[in-house]
Amino acid sequence: MKRPSSSTVMPMTHPTPLTLAELTERTGLDVLAHLERSLSIPVIDGIQAQGDLIVVPRSELPRVTRSPLAHWQDVGADGVELLRGANGGNPHTLVADRGTCAWTPYVRDAQGLTLCLVTNSAPAYLIHPEHGATGIAPGTWTIRRQRERGDPRTPGGARLVQD
Amino acid sequence: MSAVAPPIPDTSRQAIALAHAVRDEWLGHGLATLPADRARAEAAVTELYRRLGQPPPRFLWTASPVAAVAAVRGSLPDDAPASRLRQRALPVCGPDLPVAGRLASLCSGLRHRLRGWAGRGWAGRGSQPRGGRGEFRENVDDPEAALRRGTPLFGVVDTVVHTALRASLADAVRAPLRMALLPAEGPPPGLNWHGQHDAFWIARADLAARLGGRRQLWPDSEQVWPWAELARSTGWWWPGPALCVMAERPVETHTEPLRDGGLGGLRLHRDDGPAVRFGDGEELYALHGTPVPRWVVDGPTPELIHGETNVEVRRTAIERLGWDRYIDEAGLRLVSTAADPGNPGSFLSLYDVPPRVWGASARLVVATNGSVEPDGRRRRYGLAVPGYFDDPVAAAGWTYGLTGPQYAQLQRRT
Predict the structure, then answer these.
(1) What domain range includes position B385?
(2) Is the pLDDT of residue B214 over 60?
(3) Which of A54, A108, B37, B145 has its CA 20 to 30 A from that of B318?
């Protein structure tokens, strides 16, 4: 898909809710054909999951801390690929209007589940080819991935889930 | 926010493009399934023997590594390729070592010098790249981003070629084939090389030679060519004093892109037959990189699953059978069910897994995907959780490192 030139990009902070069709048009990212594109994407102010990824308000996980050397990086409209599926395709991509959302992968998490911290002043979106898109309300968020118990003979062993 | 990065020079871009081309070329050789080019392979082996001061060996061609091992053992004792090296019997100095031992010295010396070449890429940053494995991975995912962060060019291109090919060919193909095809018992069949499956380190030499024209980083690349010829022309081989046993390449090798696909790597996978098959019928089954017994692909049943000791094989087999059928047929006891927060109309089910199934007490939380598949269904999936959970919501929360009350606040699942 051709990316729209910057002059034609309508900001994602447009007052009316975005539809999946509009978001895929603006980001150049695509989703599978069977997903309904005309529905507007809900913007969630709370815990939400997209497949093996979960978005949690940072205040819920006080023990996950930013590494002292971490710096916040801007999430441009091209987006940031947070995680790819087991078969090599199907990434979870975070997108937002330039200057409205920053992220850092440099975190300390004793459980080893945190992918990144995100802070946004306008809705940011998670897009995935199979799961579609979901909106993240302004705030500061911890994005984690999923684990399952590993070999039960290894107590405490867990492995990360591959979607 | 990030500072403005200096532009990447065209020469660096060209080096990265070259690295991708070198990687793809050698990956092609590594996965080739054409009959061996016997004349070419024999010429290369003869040249290696010549460098050791040995006369050309006789050649015996076999259809698979299994047949080759049988031939090596059948050729004992007179023609024995170097079998086990007993310390007592070890010759004192180099020239008295068996052919395979001296070839191994030749080869490891070459690879040592290559590592030195690759190591130069990290000069000025200590002997190791910063950031450990994560840094390597990023280099391959986005070489230009790695350059912008200050990773030296040689480090980046070496990772694109060597790290990716080692993961694909040595770890994902060669290692499971060795496990499956070489005997675990009986007299060791002796040192062998793997022809096409050794291409990962030869690709590094190729890259060094093709990049080093100006810098003369790689003075003896001509030493590589017999090894490169073997990687381009044949499968595995066992060099003996007077006889070299050669194995044909597989006639089929099936793969899929490796997880975190940015590595450009792959793993063995085929769900309707063997992932690797040789001309004489020797084969290896593998699903998504997990080597499995044939029954996992052809007809998994709870009985076979419970009798399997390997957890990965067991999980792979359950997924193959389908969670519903597995739970049903294995008679897992339902502990409790709860509405799935954020996933209206769906339920979380917690099952008790008998110790005889997984070897220890465990539970299984089975959930339904938040989004529909292209066929209109919602896929169910099961995740193993510690055995102390009674509440499916708390168990599901644990999978994200959240408490039950936290997970109960889930607003939306897609």
Answers:
(1) 332-414
(2) no
(3) A54
